[in-house]
């Protein structure tokens, strides 16, 4: 490492956080997210419009001369922290990060970038959400200029107008959603639902090589997912602390019992660690230094922290935490799905074994 | 006046007046103190220049480049880190002049007489008595976990001067002469085989009132200065990747493939990640301090490192297989310096058990995080308004 990573938030990043949080406070309350999650339109497209059109946040990773904001992964990470805190049902990670990074890696398709950057077009990389950077993924058949096959576990495909589809000839193809069949799958995380995508002679436009594009997209997605997981873990901790100060049993606030205080202090410690790891990954993606290790460390750390935070939040809320009306289940489901998304913690530890030369027997 | 250029000029002036090559170590250190270059943030006349603390690095770099001797800070950590800031804040002018110079040069080593067999986590319950007799205080009691007591000339001491009031209010802070009659130091042997700490028995020790620090009965508040500086001293170091206890384990893993098993591999990778995350957390904390935005994260660092040191060294003993059955040396020794990563895996495993006890147990630190950082309610207190003499013991 030639330079130290910058692990802090700049004033501009804090201002960005405040703006996103204000918007989400006004337009993304938990009751609304819960009600929407069971409707025919689980994604909140008016919120997406406000984030993308209103604030220009879908184009953070796209250079200005290609229709974006020319910001970096550091700013996108701050946005994701806030979206994670609110479990916002918007395709930010999938379109503004993963699909955008895939397009940025391709030789052709530059004309599609401006659409994603503006948020008017939503993109989805047609690779199963569970896929780790560098892992194998399913492809469709490219035959006679058209594509055949079925892919599953594609996050946010239900709202995507543009699918980026890897084919067996090694190419990554741009396919319009109108020419494929997208079937929503009943998903554990209703706020980031997955879908099956069937192509039956669908026309596609080859943008470039799938291998490097998918790898780059998944690596950026995995690195920034850690910030979303941080936001969720912070919500679980803050909300549980608030509740336990208020909730009284045995003539005392429940939060005064040492057994519970120690559990919350431990969660806080874990969140402090995750913040450092997530900032490190975002900074490494922005600078291009030490990126593989930084992303793998963040992902090996993030899921266990976020899942445990949500599980502890549920337990420490007692009965109310088990109800459909309380938002803790949104975080539990998101955190658990995220623990598989873009590679499990174990998959990232295995990647580290190679990266830092701690090889298996 | 006190910018980096000025610091360099003053340092070069000192080096010209006392070339390190031709100057006795102690003479050089005394001259450095008198030039205000010992701790530049201290006041003039007391080894400093009233300059920002950050300028110390400029002085240290110049002196190191010139091959000047240092005051071996690891050997006199308690004096530098705990006694000095307390003397500076609460000492009389006379006390500051008498104590700070030989403390900084290392001519006089300091130790800390705080913990007692009956007052560990509940330090304020301490029972060592100090009774006023004319111009003196007569001290009787027993202290424990005192590192450097056998080397020390002076000790910072807290003792009970009023048993009739609640425990926090009846304590007074003194400087105790370790060479006085009635001070008896006995080594306290630890599970590692060595005696890094001591027990100190105080029997009729006479301390003149002129060696009291702060007001009578105000010792608990004075001790907070000492203890807060202890926590500052523990955090804030910059580590490279694999810089801590994970380093030797990773090295062994790479060099000796025959020791590898699948179970150990899974556990090693987990701990490697946790060590890297702890390192990044420390680095983030350091960046916050430099940027002038200190956060509460420091409270957690000691907790994280205590657990990691224990788990990593435990894994290392297992990794060594047959060699893990051995121990380098059980000989009773009294080391002057403590190095948590020194010696072999078995020593590291045993010594790191102390990391979750010394300087505040992990259980107490979790309480501190819960109450001061998260704002959760304190435990119900049954000792608050009870005179010390009526407490359960």
TrEMBL record, chain B:
It comes from Streptomyces griseoflavus Tu4000. This is Acyl-CoA dehydrogenase. Its cofactor is FAD. One of its GO terms (molecular function) is oxidoreductase activity, acting on the CH-CH group of donors. Gene3D superfamilies: Acyl-CoA dehydrogenase/oxidase, N-terminal domain, Butyryl-CoA Dehydrogenase, subunit A, domain 2, Butyryl-CoA Dehydrogenase, subunit A, domain 3. The keyword Oxidoreductase applies. The keyword Flavoprotein applies. Residues 111-195 form the Acyl-CoA oxidase/dehydrogenase middle domain. Belongs to the acyl-CoA dehydrogenase family.
């Amino acid at each position: 490492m030639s330079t130290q990573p910058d692990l802090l938030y700049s004033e501009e990043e804090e201002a960005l956080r405040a703006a996103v949080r204000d918007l989400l406070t006004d337009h993304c309350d938990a009751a609304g997210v819960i009600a929407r999650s069971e409707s025919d339109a689980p994604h909140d497209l008016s919120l997406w419009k406000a984030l993308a059109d209103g604030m220009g946040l879908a184009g953070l990773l796209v250079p200005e001369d290609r229709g974006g904001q020319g910001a970096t992964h550091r700013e996108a990470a701050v946005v994701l922290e806030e979206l994670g805190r609110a479990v916002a049902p918007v395709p930010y990670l999938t379109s503004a990060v993963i699909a955008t990074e895939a397009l940025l890696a391709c030789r052709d398709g530059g004309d599609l970038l401006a659409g994603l950057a503006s948020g008017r077009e939503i993109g989805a990389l047609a690779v199963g959400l569970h896929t780790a950077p560098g892992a194998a993924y399913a492809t469709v058949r490219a035959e006679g200029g058209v594509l055949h096959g079925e892919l599953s576990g594609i996050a946010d495909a239900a709202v995507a107008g543009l699918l980026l589809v890897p084919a067996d000839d090694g190419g990554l193809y741009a396919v319009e959603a109108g020419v494929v069949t997208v079937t929503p799958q009943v998903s554990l995380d209703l706020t980031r639902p997955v879908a099956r995508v069937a192509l039956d002679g669908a026309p596609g436009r080859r943008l470039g090589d799938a291998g490097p594009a998918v790898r780059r997209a998944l690596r950026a997605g995995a690195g920034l997912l850690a910030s979303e997981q941080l936001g969720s873990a912070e919500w679980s901790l803050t909300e549980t602390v608030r509740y336990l100060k208020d909730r009284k049993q045995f003539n005392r606030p429940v939060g005064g019992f040492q057994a519970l205080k120690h559990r919350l202090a431990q969660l806080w410690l874990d969140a402090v660690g995750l913040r450092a790891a997530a900032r490190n990954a975002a900074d490494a993606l922005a600078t291009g230094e030490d990126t593989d290790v930084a992303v793998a460390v963040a992902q090996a750390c993030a899921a266990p922290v976020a899942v445990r935070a949500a599980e502890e939040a549920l337990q420490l809320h007692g009965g109310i935490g088990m109800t459909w009306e309380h938002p803790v289940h949104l975080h539990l489901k998101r955190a658990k799905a995220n623990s598989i998304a873009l590679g499990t913690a174990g998959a990232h530890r295995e990647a580290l074994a190679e990266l830092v030369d701690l090889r298996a027997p | 006046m006190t910018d980096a250029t000025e610091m360099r000029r003053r340092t070069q002036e000192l080096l010209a007046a006392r070339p390190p090559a031709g100057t006795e170590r102690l003479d050089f250190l005394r001259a450095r103190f008198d030039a205000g270059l010992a701790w530049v943030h201290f006041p003039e006349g007391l080894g400093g220049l009233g300059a920002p603390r950050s300028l110390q690095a400029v002085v240290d770099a110049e002196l190191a480049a010139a091959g000047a001797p240092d005051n071996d800070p690891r050997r006199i950590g308690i004096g530098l880190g705990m006694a000095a800031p307390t003397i500076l804040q609460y000492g009389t002018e006379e006390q500051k002049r008498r104590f700070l110079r030989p403390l900084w040069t290392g001519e006089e080593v300091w130790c800390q007489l705080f913990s007692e067999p009956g007052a560990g986590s509940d330090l304020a319950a301490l029972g060592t008595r100090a009774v006023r007799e004319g111009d003196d205080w007569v001290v009787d009691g027993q202290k424990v976990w005192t590192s450097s007591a056998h080397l020390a000339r002076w000790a910072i001491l807290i003792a009970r001067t009023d048993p009739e009031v609640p425990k926090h209010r009846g304590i007074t802070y003194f400087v105790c002469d370790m060479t006085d009659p009635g001070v008896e130091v006995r080594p306290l042997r630890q599970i590692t085989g060595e005696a890094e700490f001591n027990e100190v028995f105080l029997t009729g020790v006479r301390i003149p009132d002129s060696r009291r620090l702060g007001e009578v009965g105000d010792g608990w508040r004075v001790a907070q200065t000492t203890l807060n500086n202890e926590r500052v001293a523990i955090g804030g170091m910059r580590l490279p990747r694999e810089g801590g206890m994970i380093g030797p384990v990773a090295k062994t893993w790479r060099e000796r493939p025959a020791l590898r098993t699948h179970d150990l591999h899974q556990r090693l990778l987990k701990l490697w990640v946790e060590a890297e995350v702890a390192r990044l957390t420390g680095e983030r904390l350091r960046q916050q301090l430099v940027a002038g935005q200190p956060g509460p994260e420091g409270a957690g660092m000691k907790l994280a490192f205590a657990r990691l040191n224990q788990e990593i060294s435990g894994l290392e003993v297992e990794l060594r297989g047959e060699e893990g059955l051995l121990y380098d040396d059980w000989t009773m020794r009294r080391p002057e310096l403590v190095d948590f990563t020194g010696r072999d895996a078995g020593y590291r495993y045993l010594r790191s058990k102390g990391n979750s006890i010394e300087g505040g147990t992990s259980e107490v630190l979790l309480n501190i995080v819960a109450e001061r950082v998260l704002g959760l309610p304190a435990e119900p207190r049954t000792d608050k308004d009870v005179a010390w003499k009526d407490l359960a013991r």
